[in-house]
Structure formats: structure tokens, C-alpha cells
Amino acid sequence: MDNVTLLLEGFATAMQPEYLLYALLGVTLGTAVGVLPGIGPAMTVALLLPLTYTLEPTAALIIFAGIYYGGMYGGSTTSILLNTPGESSSIVTALEGNKMAKAGRGAAALATAAIGSFVAGTIATVLLTVLAPTIADLAVTLGPPDYFALMVVAFVTVAALLGSSISRGLASLALGLFAGLIGTDTLSGQPRLTMGMSVLADGIDVVVVAVGFFAVGEALYVASRLRHGPVEVVPLGGKWMTREFWARSWKPWLRGTAIGFPIGTIPAGGADVSTFLSYAAEKKLAKRPEEFGKGAIEGVAGPEAANNAAAAGVLVPLLTLGLPTTATAAVIVAAFQSYGIQPGPQLFTNNPAMVWALIASLYIGNVMLLVLNLPLVKIWVKVLQIPRPYLYAGILLFAALGTYAVNFIVEDLVVLLVIGVVGFFMRRHGYPVAPAVVGMILGPMAEEQLRRTLTISQGNPVALVDSPFAMVAYGLLALVLITTLVLRLRRNKVDEVKVPA
Predict the structure, then answer these.
(1) Which of 67, 100, 329, 410 could share a disulfide with 295, CB 3.0–4.6 Å?
(2) Does residue 56 fall inside a structural domain?
């Protein structure tokens, strides 16, 4: 009952006009960036990180959570009407959704995506509410080797699964771990890898890294690949939801939720894997399999539900263990740390008011998103008409101003430019940037837990795997990697239908 009381108190906080406005701002920005191809929630959160320092932590995190959820919703609009996924997790939606739109059923495709996202998001947030405090209580009992094992799991799975190549993902992770070592050693007080530069004595600011990779680097990369000519949008046609569409959609919504949430809670590829798995399940269970590839509504309903359920699932390890399993989650961890708050098992004890207000805002944000997505879809389509040069020039300007505003140090802009150029070349050559950010955020924490373990065991490395929890974690790591690689092979078969970039 204590958790119910805390949740009600969280609603009392989140329902205040000020926080409602922040939630509305977050979901609106999230939907807008989800609609725009190439601008995802990770970039938007990174871009806004320096600009929200004047806000209190609860307000800033409510905005970021709204952006995260809104981005999942908005990606379906361009997938259906433009056949251009705004997010990688919306690729599957484009397979059937765009076919529905071309067949004059675009309104139904958008409706089943929006309603399915609302249903899945609400159910998944309920599961988050129930599971998170329990997992946090269990996590308090973990020791240094257990935490080190968890971070190894996060390192390997994020590096191996957030890209097309395992070797490139591991190389990106190594770059992030190296960057995390720069600065002053907390134990010895000696500078490490600073090259005699005073600006690096305190290490590279995580906010600068996040903005550099996800805003500057991504903006340069997407801008370099812009298509010329007008954007061709399929006209919105047909009825929103008929009785037949309701009957064919509600089971895929529930199945997508059941698939997406557990996959989101483990470092197994998040929404990308869950959407492809949901699509495969719907195709296998469909009463009309011949419609798949031609505009089956089940192929939109299931993956969109899985997409949003996985988004809520990602928040479970983030809030309870401090482990980010997606690019956006990594930037949200950086947002927590920028306020001196470390997400993890102590979060529910040390900052209960903030975390329960954040969870309550997710329920409110889901309702706002449903209201925003259905009636205002024509407005979101007009967002696509923004001239791309203005858009990306604005992103670079805000990135520079926001970074300078963090410490008011010109050298930070030089570091930002260097990281942005590195991020651009990483994206251009197929190296995912998320493992680098995860490595920099979790690297110092993993080093601390490793040192504690070896100090307690007097240098005996066996202590790293001597804990029952650590052994289970490493065993699950092997299982997740094998399972996800199998799923990736299945996804490649589904991906035979080409979607233009």
C-alpha cells in the first residue's frame, strides 16, 4: 500500500499546472521529433540537456520522459504516410502502414498505431509501477561484484546489439570507456590521459559528449544525406476505425505489449528487436496471412504496441539499476547525473517524490499523446515541410549555445566540435554512437566497482564471478546474446521488403 500512496502523491505533484505544462511540452516536442526523419528522442534530449539547467530536476525529467514517449508515437506518422521511418523502431510499421495508406486506409493505420501505443504504453507503465520498487529493493542487497557483472552485461549487450556489426559496436564501446578514463583518478588524485590540458583535468563533461554525439554528429550526418526535392506525402484517406478494424487490432495490441515490455527490460535491443518479433508473431498468427505485404492492419497494431511497451520497459533497469539499454536511456542517465542524481536502487529511497512524480507523468503523457496524435495528424505532416537547412542549422546553433551555457568555457565548444566530427565519421562508417556514450557514463562506475571487489578480495580475480548473482548475470548474458542473434537473423528475413532511408 505504501507504493500506492507514493504513486497518488506522485499524481498530486504531476497534476499541478506547472508540471502538466512541462509534460505537454515534452510529449509535443517528442511527437514533433518523432515525425522528422533522422531526429530522434536521443538527439532532442541531448540538445535540451544544457537548456534545462534552470529547471528543477523533476520538471526536467518529466520533459525528457515526455520526449521519449512522444518520439515513439511520432515515428509512426512518417512511416505510414511517407514510408520513411522517423525512428529505427518504426521500420516495421512502414512495411504494412504505408501499404494501407496507399490503399486509402491511412486514417485506420494511424488510428490503430496511436490507440495501440496508448494501450501498450498504459499497461507497460502499470507494470513499471509494480515491478520497479520490487527490483530496487532487491538491488539494494547487491554487492560490488554483482554491480560490476550488471555493467558488463550492459556493456556487451549494448555494444553488440545497437548496431549492424558486433565488432564495430565493441570498438565504439572501447572509445567511450577510454573517454571515461580521462581526468583525475579519484583514488590516487593523479591526472590520467589529460595530455597536460587543464580543461581535461575534471574529465570530459557527459553533457558535452551527449550533445556532441547525438546532436552535432547526428545533425552533420543526416544533413550530409538529405534528399533533394519536395516531400511526397500519401493523402490521408478512409475511415478512422471501423468495427472490423477494432476486432482485428485489439489482440495484436495485447500481444505486442506482452512481447515488447519484457524485451525492453533486458539489454536485448529494446524496441527494434521487439517490433520485428511482434511482426513475425502477427504474420504467423494471422487469419489472413495473404494480406501481409499488402497492408495488413495487424502488422501495424502489433509492432506499434511492442514499440511503446518496450519504451516503458527500458525505464525499469534505468530507474532501478542505473543501466541504460538504449541511446535515449543513456542520455537520460546523463540528465540525472547532471543534477547530481544517480539512478539506481537508492533512487526510490533518496528521491521518492521525484521518481513517483516521473512515473505518474508517464500515465498523463500517454493520455496527452492520444489526444495530440489523432486530431492533429495533419499538423504533424506539415512539420515535414520545414526546410532542412534551417532545421539542422538551428540544431547546431542550439547545441553550441547550450554547451557554452553549461560552464561558460570556450574550450567546451572545441571539445564539442571534436566529438561532433568524431560522431559524424562514426555514423558515416557504420559505428553506432550509443555504446560510446554508455561506455563513458558507466565506465567510471564499473571501474569503481571493480576496484572495490579486488580490494575486498585482496586482488583475487575469482571474486568477480564468485557471487551467485554474478554467475547468473553472466549466464543470462550468454543466453541473451545467442537469442538476440537468432532474432536478428529472423529480422533480416523479414527485412526483405526494402524501406527507403
Answers:
(1) 100
(2) yes
Look at residues 208, 221, 209, 236 and name the one whose alpha carbon lies nearest to residue 388.
Answer: 221
3-state class of 183 per DSSP?
A: strand
Three-state secondary structure readout of 102-129: HHHHHHHHHHHHHHHHHHHHHHHHHHHH
The answer to whether position 499 is within a domain reads: no
> Within a 10 A sphere around the Cβ of 246, how many other Cβ atoms?
13
Sequence-separated (6 or more) residues with CB below 8 Å from residue 36: 78, 86, 383, 384, 386, 391
Within 10 A of 225 (CB to CB), how many other CB atoms are there?
A: 10
Give Cβ neighbours of residue 303 (< 8 Å, ≥ 6 apart).
Answer: 92, 93, 256, 275, 276, 278, 279, 282
Yes or no: say if 438 and 176 are a contact pair by the CB < 8 Å rule: yes
Q: What is the DSSP letter of 53?
A: T
Residue partners of 74: CB distance under 8 A and separation at least 6:
30, 31, 32, 33, 34, 35, 86, 373, 380
User: Which pTM was predicted?
Assistant: 0.79
Cα-flanking dihedrals φ and ψ of residue 285, to 5°?
-90, -5
**C-alpha dihedral, 236 to 238 to 244 to 248, nearest 10°:** -20
For every residue of 362-379, DSSP letters joined together read: HHHHHHHHHHHHTTTHHH
Tell me if 413 is assigned to some domain.
yes
356's torsion region: left (phi>0), alpha (psi -120 to 50) or beta? Answer: alpha
Hey, what amino acid is at 161? Answer: L
Within 10 angstroms of residue 187's Cβ, the number of other Cβ atoms is 10
Instruction: Tell whether 349 is covered by a domain.
Output: yes
Buried (b) or exposed (e) across 139-157, using 16+ Cβ within 10 A?
Answer: beebbbbbbbbbbbbbbbb
Q: What is the pLDDT of residues 403-422, one digit of tens each?
A: 887 777 888 888 889 999 99
**How many structural domains is the chain composed of?**
1
Q: Is 194 helix (H, G, I), strand (E, B) or coil?
A: coil
* pLDDT of the chain, 501 residues: tens digit per residue: 477 888 899 999 999 999 999 999 989 888 887 777 667 777 777 777 777 777 888 998 899 888 888 877 777 777 787 776 656 666 778 788 888 888 888 888 888 888 888 999 899 999 999 998 888 888 888 888 988 888 888 787 777 666 667 788 888 889 988 888 888 877 777 788 777 777 677 778 777 888 888 788 878 887 777 655 555 666 666 677 788 888 888 889 999 999 989 888 876 556 667 887 888 888 888 787 777 877 788 888 888 898 889 888 888 888 888 888 777 888 888 888 888 888 888 888 888 889 999 999 999 999 998 888 777 777 777 776 777 777 788 888 888 887 887 777 888 888 889 999 999 999 888 888 878 888 888 888 888 888 888 888 888 888 888 888 888 888 888 887 777 677 666 666 655 554 444
